[in-house]
Every structure is written in structure tokens, then in C-alpha cells.
Amino acid sequence: MVQLDRDERNTVAQKICGSLKRQIMGGAYARGASLPSTRALAAELGVSRTTVTAAYEQLLAEGFIEIRQGATALVAPTLELGVPKMRRRPKRLRPPVLSGYGRRVSDLPPSDPAPPRKMIADFRYGDLAGTDFPTLAWKRALNAALPRHSERLRYDDPRGSLKLRSALQAYLWRARSLQCDADQIVVVNGSQQGLDLCTRLLLDAGNRVVIEDPCYVSARETLLAAGAATVPIEVASDGLRTDQLATIKDARLCYVTPSHQFPLGAVMSVGRRQELLAWVGRTGAYVIEDDYDSEYRFDIKPIPPLHGLDEAGRVIYLGTVSKTLSPRLRLGYMVVPLPLREVFAKAKQIVDRHTPTLEQEALADFIASGAYERHVRRVRRRNAERRAVLLKALSTKLGRQIVVSGADAGLHVVVWFRQVPRRLERRLIEAGQAAGLGLYPITPLYSSSTVAYRPAWAGLVMGYAGLDEVRIERGVDRLAIVLDAVTAPAAG
Ligand SMILES: Cc1ncc(COP(=O)(O)O)c(C=O)c1O
Prior knowledge:
alpha/beta
């Protein structure tokens, strides 16, 4: 502890007082928040308690704090506070020197801004309704998992908790007829991290990667950020046009959504699956099979994953709970071919050690107890109801003005507007927004808006799992009005 004479003590006390005042006024402490005790602050600053007490007395005298009998000092509850400020910025900031990866990331278009809060209906795809989350059951699973952590806290297996991997292995077999060892499973922070690990381990900048066209934007961006030269291939009504693969001999990867193509909804036929695997056998490429929403089949039978047909160990399977529980949990899993399991485990360890253990164990209990599959059945029924209302509203309000695709499965539909040329797609979105609708265009999902196989009409990807029936109906009513305005002769 620094020993100070009286004058020095006063100067130090003033400095402490000044610095606390600036922090309080800058919003570093909220109104009514406790300041550190005089003992704790004195120990932290290496000065005597008398010095800190003098600083607090000054703050008290000036009305910045209150000191209640026997309690620590509080920021005065009535004080007007500012927003926390950054230190003064230097006048000229040098442009950052980014890595190749950094440059590619900064070249990607910015993400969609958050929609305004007050909307009639936000048809953003990927959102789920908060009311569908099994709050009580999840709390129970978390509570049950908590005591298991008290003994010793240490890093876990990078592949994920064995309990969860075993529960997932059994689940995948039951629900998807997918057979694998628990050793082949790596628990990841959503399928997004699985994709990122694939690019780190299997791609060098400049390598070619086959993608579907249109394609899931986050997958395409992950590949582009890694420096991949993407090769977009048309999607037909029975999936990726695998007949067009014959001329592509040097691709390292192929990213597909065979159970329910995102966004068009095609299910890849067995013939195309075989053609894809034959191509993989000839070229040595790996296939990333993104099975993101296989829990939601409505008018069609479940089709086992491509993984089951793969005898050469070239398919990397990705699954997620983002469509069944919550995208905020950031829990997903990958099934990797045996020869890749060690390198994936090591990469996961390097990237973030492992996915948080508590949530993994809660999910393990949730799956093993049967609660997960009960929940999936419940949300499937719930989403089937929403989907029925959406399809009915679209058909009654917009009828022959639209063509709907991809409604057999998943949590979104694609709506094409036969009277709106694609150059007016932006206008449709903006008019929708002005009228209180969150609408999302299909064009950014295509590699180019001019590809011949893309309909010439404007199109929307409409998610419905985050909305209740009333909002869905109101949203479609409003969409019909917006559409009239956009297609009115003067608008063209
Ligand atoms: C095609 C596709 N794959 C995967 C995901 C889920 O990603 P994550 O598991 O990272 O939340 C989504 C979510 O919208 C998706 O559309």
C-alpha cells in the first residue's frame, strides 16, 4: 500500500473523485448502481482507505452518490447520466490492414438491418415464435445438468460431451435412419460453425466449390470468405442438376440441401443422389449435406439423408436445433467421415475449445428423455397450422397473381409474383416495408439475377414460423394492397 502525506493524499483523493465522476457521468455506472466498497477500491488502487473515503465524501457532497447506513455507496438514483463514451478518437485513423480473409469478408454485402419493431408481419425466414420454445422443459434440463459441473471445472472434449453425442447418434438413427459412431459426431455452434470448419480444413483459396443456385446465403458467404471459387449449378424440381457436374473435375467441395433445397424446396431424387455420389467418387470432392429442416415434412414422406447412400465416406452431414428449439442456442452437429474425425476435433479445439458444456448436457437429457421428439412433434403440428393459414391466405388474396413453391416441407415458401418483373422486386420490398411488412427478396440468393433458369418475376422467401395466424392473415391482406400499388400502371 502506498503511504502518502496529507497533501498528497488530498491530491490522490481528488484524482479518484474526478475519475469516478467522469465514469458516472459517462454512464459507466448506471443510476442506483453500487460503487466498489472503500476497502476494495483502496486495495485495487494501492492507496489507503482514508484516501478513498475522502474521494467518496467529495462525491457525496457534490450529489453524485448516496451512502446509505452500513451499505456501499450508490450512484444517486436521480442523476442525469450520459451514454458511455469512447475515449477521444484520434483525428485520422489509418485504414486497417486486413488479411486476405479479412478483405474478402469486408467485400461481402452488409447483412440485412434489423427490422423496425412495430410491424404488421415480419416474414423473415429463420425466426421461430418465442411461444414455441419449451421453456419449462428446457429449464428442467438445464437445472438437471447444473450439479454435474460442480466437481471440477475443466475444458471438455472438443468434439462435444459424450452424453450428447451418444444421444444424437441414437436420435439420428431413429429420426433420420442415419447410422454413425458417436465418435464421428462433432457438436458445433450451429451448422454455421460446421460449414466454417469444413472450409478451414478442406479448402484453399482459389479452390472450386459447387453450390446450388439459388443457394443459402450464409453458406455461399462462408465459402467466399474462405476464398472459394464457387460454381453455381441450377436447381431443378428434383434437386441439383447433377447432369451438369460431368465437366467439373477439380472441385474440392459441393454444398447441397438434398432433403429440402433452400430456398426452392426441391427434394433431390434418388437418381440425382446417385449421380452426385458417382461424381464425388470420380473427383474426390467432399459433399456437405445440410439437413437443416428435415423435421418439417408436411405433404411428403421423409427421405433418408444422402449420407446413407455414401459408401466412400465423402459426405459430411450437418444438423441443427435452430429450426426446432431456437437459433439462439447455437447448437448444431456434424457427422464426419471416419478419416476426418481427428482433424475436425483438433480444428474445433483451436477455434473455440468446445461448445458450452451446460447447454450440451441439457440437450443430451432433453433428447434422451424423449422430450425433444415430443417437442418436435408439437412444433411440427403448430407450424403445419401456420403454413395452412398462410397458403390459404395467399390463395384467396393473391390467387392467380402468384406461384408458390417449396410448401411441402420446411418453414418457408417461395412466392413468385407473375405480374411483377424482377426489376421491381426491390420496389415491392420497399413498398412492403413502408406498409409495415418485413419482406425478403429471392434475388440475393441467386448467383446472378440474369441467369436464364431464374423466373423473370419478382420473388419473395416468406418465413412463417415466427408469426401467429392473425399476423399471417393481416400480413397477406396488406401484401395484396402493396402488390396492387406496385403493379398499378403508373408504378411501372
Ligand atoms: C439452409 C440452412 N442451413 C442451416 C441453417 C441453420 O444454421 P445454424 O444451425 O447455424 O443456425 C439455416 C437457417 O436458417 C438454413 O437456412
